[in-house]
């Protein structure tokens, strides 16, 4: 059973998905290389050459995706200089990039469950306690919410952007 579409949204044929937030998100992180760069940033990668090497993409693709993610606000450039070297930029996560962690981790956990025959290659745990960490849908009160319990309604404070 799907989510419960409430009020005027219940008739799917009477409205469109114009201004969909998922479309906006995919315009930023909808490529394999973008998601893999974010994965590497969560693992601590900051240097341009390390992103390209660890992901297995060309430097041209790495440069394009790092620029895209930086312009979108998920990464920020920070200058560094190795001893005896010239000043270069490294890439660090912004708050916006850190906020995407549950989405990326959720995709990995979904693949661990449904696509990995031998079990997950990595375990995600609370570093301090060792307790497994899981991504899930919860209400503001912390209660789990299943798809069938999810309601979708119009946000009364949303305003259509000016053209």
Automatic annotation (TrEMBL):
Residues 20-119 form the HTH hxlR-type domain. Keywords: DNA-binding, Transcription, Transcription regulation. Pfam families: HxlR. InterPro entries: HTH_HxlR, WH-like_DNA-bd_sf, WH_DNA-bd_sf. This is Winged helix-turn-helix transcriptional regulator. It comes from Actinomadura gamaensis. The lineage of its organism: Bacteria, Bacillati, Actinomycetota, Actinomycetes, Streptosporangiales.
């Amino acid at each position: 059973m799907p989510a419960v579409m409430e009020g005027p949204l219940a008739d799917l044929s009477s409205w469109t998905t114009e201004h969909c937030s998922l479309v906006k998100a995919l315009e930023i992180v909808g490529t394999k290389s973008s998601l893999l760069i974010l994965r590497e940033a969560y693992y601590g990668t900051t240097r341009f050459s390390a992103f390209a090497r660890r992901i297995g993409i060309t430097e041209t693709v790495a440069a394009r995706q790092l620029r895209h993610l930086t312009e979108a606000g998920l990464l920020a450039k920070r200058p560094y200089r190795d001893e005896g070297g010239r000043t270069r930029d490294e890439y660090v996560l912004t708050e916006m990039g850190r906020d995407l962690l549950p989405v990326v981790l959720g995709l990995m956990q979904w693949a661990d469950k449904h696509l990995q025959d031998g079990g997950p290659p990595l375990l995600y745990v609370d570093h301090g306690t060792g307790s497994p960490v899981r991504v899930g849908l919860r209400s503001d009160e912390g209660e789990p919410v299943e798809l069938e319990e999810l309601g979708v309604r119009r946000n009364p404070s949303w305003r259509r952007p000016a053209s």
